[in-house]
């Protein structure tokens, strides 16, 4: 649009320069000729650049991208309409992108399209309630309707949106990928009605294909492995997540036993590939309990005894001797273009003391469901906000005052970005779709951060230590602004904030960036840094805690000396209540004296200034 506007301005200036001259005036003719020449040079240069870019070095040899792929690509990147991309164009762009290898994608990304964010929900659906008022509406589209997020539903209610039941027409559909997949399978007509016939008229709170991030654990692992292998490295080598193996796949099963046999003291955690909330998870002291699986036979379709076996973090970082994990949020706020945000979360601390050898679920599972089963459970002891966590680390000399905002947040954002980028090609673009994921992390005693798993429909905590209502309100504010008037977001880059949400990926920025995301390089560099030393260098691990304790001790000693002096002068026992009263009176007298001195000084300054 900028180019068109500039051309229009030039025409106005050229028409006015001749003092009312017509089409044959000399200035206009010269301008027209120069425009033609410039256009030809640009056209030739574009062709040369594209022909040069089509030959890419792969493993030391030159590989030529197929002509049919590049003909589609050229049609996309040179299309003027792509400045205001249509849904079919972005989906076609993804189809071309999927057909390229990792090396070829770097060329694809380097050709900058520079589209702006179009209006995605241009005609929000309006419903008429029983009183005849027309306003936006929302519906819970889950098979267990009582389990839609209460605070999300409450926020829409507070916006005076109309709640509807058992319908397939609404402004907001609160749903998840499980419900979408079941609807697609069992009721294709209503699925198409919500997702495609009403595209641009409604919001859907789940991405079709989002289970590549948070669904079947075997599929999640397969997606991450395939993505890493495109760049030439094994997923386990990234050390993002504890090593894990899909036991119903013979090759991975054999790899597990080959590793486990050489590490007989390694502890393992077994998880069903389906399920949530810790159901079906068990801890095993060694691999001897898996001998029945050593045959490594491929599981039959439909058999539900499929498991992931994961390396157990035996020495986690503890808070007062108790295990904890970290829940954070990743919001894929838009799919056209993709814009992804990170929101800090909270810690979930175990109520019982940690024992590495214990197989009690409340010992090694820290989620709220299992912890709430413990006697004397209190949410304030279970949920810790990031500020409270940072204070504990500083006070106990574990890490310094900036550990959370520097080292921890950096590691978490790397994990979030990898989760999105690895699943990106599995997602289906749609206007009005968004998805809030909950991702869980743990920290070991070496301060290394480990991604544990993702949840596609995370719950919200009601703790005072975490501003849940603010998160939900900001999320809906941002979604409505982004989807209905997104121009303010097209310049948003990594690190920009919207309330508590931090942008970690913007597709518009990515398409104009010649540096391609490469997890093998990214994590190899990150893993080379010893995390404890990084915490010492960045967060001043030794100074903060020691200084705080020293200052507190000095104040206690000074108060004790002052009490002894004052009370002895009055012949009062230092440990008696009368001494406490004397100290209180002395503090009041000192405060009054200091306040009087300040007031007199201000009066003198005012009088002097007046002279």
TrEMBL record:
GO terms for molecular function: protein-glycine ligase activity, elongating. Keywords: Membrane, Transmembrane, Transmembrane helix. The chain crosses the membrane at residues 28-45, 324-343. The keyword Membrane applies. Pfam families: TTL (PF03133). InterPro entries: TTL/TTLL_fam (IPR004344), TTLL10 (IPR027752). It comes from the Eukaryota. The keyword Transmembrane applies. This is Protein polyglycylase TTLL10. It comes from Hondaea fermentalgiana. The lineage of its organism: Eukaryota, Sar, Stramenopiles, Bigyra, Labyrinthulomycetes.
């Amino acid at each position: 649009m900028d180019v068109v506007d500039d051309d229009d301005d030039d025409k106005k200036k050229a028409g006015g320069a001749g003092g009312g001259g017509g089409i044959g005036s000399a200035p206009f003719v010269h301008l027209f000729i120069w425009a033609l020449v410039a256009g030809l040079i640009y056209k030739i240069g574009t062709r040369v650049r594209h022909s040069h870019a089509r030959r890419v070095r792969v493993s030391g040899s030159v590989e030529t991208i197929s002509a049919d792929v590049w003909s589609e690509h050229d049609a996309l990147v040179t299309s003027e309409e792509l400045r205001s991309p249509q849904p079919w164009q972005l989906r076609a762009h993804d189809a071309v992108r999927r057909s390229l290898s990792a090396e070829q994608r770097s060329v694809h990304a380097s050709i900058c399209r520079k589209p702006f964010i179009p209006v995605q929900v241009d005609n929000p659906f309006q419903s008429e309630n029983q009183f005849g008022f027309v306003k936006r509406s929302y519906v819970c589209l889950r098979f267990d309707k009582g389990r839609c997020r209460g605070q999300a539903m409450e926020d829409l209610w507070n916006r005076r949106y109309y709640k509807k039941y058992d319908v397939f027409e609404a402004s907001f559909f609160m749903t998840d990928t499980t419900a979408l997949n079941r609807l697609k399978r069992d009721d294709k007509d209503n699925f198409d009605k919500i997702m495609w016939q009403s595209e641009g008229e409604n919001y859907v709170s789940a991405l079709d294909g989002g289970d590549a991030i948070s669904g079947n654990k075997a599929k999640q692992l397969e997606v991450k492995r395939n993505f890493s292998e495109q760049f030439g490295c094994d997923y386990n080598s990234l050390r993002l997540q504890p090593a894990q193996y899909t036991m119903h796949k013979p090759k991975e099963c054999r790899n597990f036993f080959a590793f486990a046999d050489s590490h007989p003291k390694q502890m393992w955690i077994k998880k069903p590939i389906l399920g949530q909330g810790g159901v079906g998870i068990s801890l095993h002291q060694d691999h001897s309990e898996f001998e029945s699986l050593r045959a490594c036979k491929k599981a039959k379709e439909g058999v539900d005894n499929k498991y992931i076996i994961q390396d157990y973090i035996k020495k986690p970082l503890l808070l007062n001797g108790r295990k904890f994990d970290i829940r954070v949020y990743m919001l894929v706020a838009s799919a056209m273009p993709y814009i992804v945000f990170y929101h800090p979360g909270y810690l979930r601390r175990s109520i019982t003391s940690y024992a590495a050898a214990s197989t009690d679920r409340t010992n090694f599972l820290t989620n709220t469901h299992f912890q709430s089963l413990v006697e004397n459970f209190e949410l304030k002891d279970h949920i810790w906000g990031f500020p409270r966590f940072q204070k504990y680390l500083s006070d106990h000399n574990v890490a310094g005052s900036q550990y959370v905002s520097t080292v921890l947040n950096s590691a978490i954002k790397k994990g979030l970005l990898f989760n999105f980028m690895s699943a990106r090609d599995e997602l289906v673009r749609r206007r009005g779709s968004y998805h809030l994921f909950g991702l869980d992390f743990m920290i070991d005693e070496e301060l290394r951060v480990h991604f544990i798993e993702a949840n596609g429909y995370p719950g919200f905590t009601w703790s005072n230590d975490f501003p849940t209502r603010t998160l939900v309100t900001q999320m809906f504010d941002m979604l409505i602004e982004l989807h209905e008037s997104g121009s303010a977001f097209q310049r948003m880059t990594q690190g920009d904030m919207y309330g508590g949400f931090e942008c970690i990926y913007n597709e518009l920025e990515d398409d104009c960036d010649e540096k391609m995301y490469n997890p093998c390089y990214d994590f190899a560099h990150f893993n080379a840094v010893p995390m404890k030393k990084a915490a010492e260098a960045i967060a001043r691990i030794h100074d903060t805690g020691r200084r705080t304790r020293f200052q507190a001790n000095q104040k206690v000693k000074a108060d004790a000396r002052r009490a002894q002096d004052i009370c002895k002068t009055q012949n009062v026992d230092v440990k008696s209540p009368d001494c406490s009263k004397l100290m209180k009176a002395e503090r009041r007298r000192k405060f009054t004296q200091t306040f009087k001195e300040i007031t007199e000084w201000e009066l003198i300054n005012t009088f002097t200034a007046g002279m």
